[in-house]
Structure formats: structure tokens, C-alpha cells
């Protein structure tokens, strides 16, 4: 299956010169892990047995970019171009966690929200949620 280019996060290390260098992330959150395939079997005594039919959880990250000058707004073009290169929500890609440096393959866009700023073109922002579903 074809994949998109690696997500442009700020370089985790100066040794990673072959990776894209992305714009500064103003707000970054690792969202709570979800186990979508958790099965609970209820017992006669009211207790339960919980089993996970998948060993990997759904992982989500929320990234918020806020730029208030025209020069820094140009950095957001990298995020927009990446979204377009992945055909929106279609292709998966590699995401390097900007704080830990861990590489996550098979990540996709779940939310890509470029709000309408009207006449304030110098004030740009993006809210992006990335998701990695279990294999």
C-alpha cells in the first residue's frame, strides 16, 4: 500500500538531517490510549473477565499550531502540503514523536482543522489530530 511522506515535526536530533524539519508546535498532547477491542465476559457472581483481543491500542496525538505573523504563517504551508500529499485522510505516514523521538508507522489524519480567519490572514492556526490504529 502506498504511504505518504513523513510528518514534518521539529527535528528531534541534529543527527536526523534526512528527516523533514517542521514548524514549531505550540500545543502538543498525547491523548489517552484506547483499546477498541476489549472484551468483557460477565460471570454469574457479578464479576467479570476482561480480555484484550488486540495487543496494540489506538494512539492519538493532538497538535495545535498558532502563528501570528506572515513570516511564521509560511511555516504552516509545510503542514498543509503534507496533508495534500497524503490525499487528505487517505494515505498513512510515519510520525516521529517530537518529545520522545519514537517513530510510529501507519499513522493517519483523524482531524485537520484550518479555521477560517476571514480578513486576518496574518493570524493562522491549525489543529491536527493524528491516529495510529492497531494493525
Question: How is this structure best described in words?
Answer:
The chain is mainly β and 135 residues long. It has one domain (27-132): Elongation Factor Tu (Ef-tu), domain 3, CATH 2.40.30. 10% of the residues lie in helices and 35% in strands. The protein contains 2 helices and 7 strands. The chain has helices spanning 70-73, 76-85, and strands at residues 27-30, 38-42, 48-52, 59-67, 93-96, 103-113, 124-132. A 5-stranded antiparallel sheet has the order 1-4-7-6-5. Strands 2-3 form a two-stranded antiparallel ribbon. Strand 2 (38-42) and strand 3 form a beta hairpin. It starts with 26 loop residues before the first strand and ends with a strand.
Radius of gyration: 18 Å
Q: Strand order within the widest sheet? A: 1-4-7-6-5
CATH class: Mainly Beta
Largest sheet data: 5 strands, antiparallel
Which stretches are low in confidence, meaning pLDDT under 50 for 5 or more residues running?
A: none
Percent range of helical residues: 10-25%
| Number of E strands | 7
Amino acid at each position: 500500500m502506498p504511504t505518504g511522506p513523513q510528518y514534518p515535526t521539529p527535528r528531534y536530533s541534529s543527527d536526523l538531517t534526512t528527516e523533514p524539519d517542521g514548524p514549531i508546535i505550540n500545543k502538543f498532547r498525547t491523548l489517552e490510549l484506547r483499546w477498541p477491542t476489549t472484551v468483557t465476559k460477565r460471570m454469574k457472581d457479578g464479576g467479570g473477565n476482561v480480555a484484550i483481543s488486540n495487543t496494540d491500542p489506538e494512539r492519538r496525538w493532538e497538535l495545535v499550531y498558532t502563528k501570528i505573523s506572515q513570516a511564521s504563517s509560511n511555516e504552516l504551508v509545510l503542514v498543509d502540503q503534507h496533508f495534500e500529499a497524503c490525499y487528505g485522510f487517505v494515505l498513512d505516514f510515519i510520525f516521529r514523536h517530537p518529545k520522545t523521538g519514537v517513530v510510529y508507522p501507519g499513522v493517519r489524519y483523524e482531524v485537520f482543522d484550518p479555521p477560517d480567519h476571514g480578513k486576518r490572514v496574518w493570524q493562522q492556526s491549525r489543529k491536527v489530530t493524528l491516529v495510529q490504529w492497531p494493525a
